[in-house]
Design goal:
CATH architecture of the largest domain: 2-Layer Sandwich
Distance between the termini: 36 Å
Largest sheet: 5 strands, antiparallel
Order of helices and strands: HEEHEHEEEEE
Strand content: over 45%
Number of helices: 3
Shape: globular
CATH superfamily of the largest domain: RimP-like superfamily, N-terminal
Number of strands: 8
CATH topology of the largest domain: GMP Synthetase, Chain A, domain 3
CATH class of the largest domain: Alpha Beta
Number of domains: 2
Helix content: 10-25%
Radius of gyration: 17 Å
Length: 147
């Protein structure tokens, strides 16, 4: 819901909204993290501009109960992979995936991203290929870009 609220404004500013996550409890200490990207990379000024725009939207729409801290940052070295397009962009690179539950006897997969389909990514770990459904992924991050 929050992503759908913020994404059009962030894209209108020329950025890609990679990920939005709300952590903590509504009783206090919540953090709303937003990760943005752009073809030329992200500078501190970019984060400040997006932060002002996002803050204004959140003030008007008020989708979060309780107090929270807004953080806007670049994806960094361990960029989150959220959509199939994010995975496709880094095919051949090394990624780390944490599944919501046990998948083929394990939850954590770190290896080379060898294939990306509409609903899955194939990660090769120690010579064995694992087809991981996007819908079962808790978190995925880039470890190292491909060749």
């Amino acid at each position: 819901m929050i992503r759908a609220l913020l994404e059009p404004a962030v894209e209108d500013m020329g950025y890609e909204l990679l990920m939005v996550e709300l952590t903590g409890s509504s009783g206090g200490g919540q953090i709303l993290r937003t990760y943005i990207d752009a073809p030329g990379g992200i500078l501190l000024d970019d984060c400040e501009q997006v932060s002002k725009q996002v803050s204004a939207i959140l003030d008007v729409e008020d989708p979060i109960k309780g107090e929270y801290t807004l953080e806007v940052s670049s994806p960094g070295v361990d960029r989150p992979l959220v959509t199939p397009a994010h995975f496709s962009r880094f095919e051949g690179g090394e990624i780390k995936v944490i599944m919501r539950g046990s998948h083929l006897g394990r939850r954590r997969f770190t290896g080379r991203l060898t294939e990306v389909g509409e609903h899955f990514a194939v990660v090769e770990v120690d010579g064995e290929a694992y087809e991981l459904p996007f819908s079962d992924m808790e978190k995925a991050n880039l470890v190292a870009p491909g060749p």
